[in-house]
Amino acid sequence: MMPGAEEQAGFRTYTLPDRAWRVECSTAALEEILRASLDGLLSLPLIGLEVGGVLYGALEGDVVRVVTSRPVACEHAFGPGYTLSENDENRLRQALGASAEPALTGLIPVGWYHSHTRTGLVLSATDRDLHRRYFPEAWHLVMLVQPGYSKPARLGFYLRGADGN
């Protein structure tokens, strides 16, 4: 478990330094994201394919609660990274409107996730641009996942600072 994390009733709570927000993440959603990230890593020897998707949940006071997720396929038109093509962005827009799906009733998009198979848990310029365009609220989060072949996966959560970055 990462520093600043605690587990209660099927959710892990993560506190973020210098942020007013806390993140609660369903362990079931987290396990599904970790499994997809590892599958992506193993699908292309040595470098892996990055995967991603939308996080759905609720905003409850100062808590961003992640209940479930939906993958957004990437055709990897620009290589193994999770850099979205126009087709991929169309799928992302569809996923953002998927709240009408019966299983997502009462949930809203609270952010997005994606794996980094070759780099650390740092948002790239492409990541920041995607976040700015599709997830404009201060409480919208990014979950980065770094799966490992022989070591535990690492998670990084990102929210905007007071300056909007």
In short:
This protein has 165 residues and is α+β, with helices and mostly antiparallel strands. It has helices spanning 27-43, 86-96, 125-134; strands spanning 5-8, 11-15, 22-26, 52-60, 63-71, 108-115, 141-146, 154-158.
Describe the structure in your own words:
With 165 residues, this protein is of the alpha+beta class. It is built from 3 helices and 8 strands. Strands 1-2-3-5-4-6-7-8 form an 8-stranded mixed beta sheet.
Note poorly predicted spans: none
> Helix count, per DSSP?
3
General shape: globular
Strand order of the largest sheet: 1-2-3-5-4-6-7-8
Mean pLDDT: 87
Strand element count:
8
- How much of the polypeptide forms β-strand, as a percent range? 25-35%
Q: Can you summarize the main beta sheet?
A: 8 strands, mixed
Question: Layout of SSEs?
Answer:
Elements: E1 5-8, E2 11-15, E3 22-26, H1 27-43, E4 52-60, E5 63-71, H2 86-96, E6 108-115, H3 125-134, E7 141-146, E8 154-158
Parallel strand pairs: 3-5, 6-7
Antiparallel strand pairs: 1-2, 2-3, 4-5, 4-6, 7-8
Core attributes:
165 residues; 3 helices; 8-stranded mixed beta sheet; alpha+beta; globular
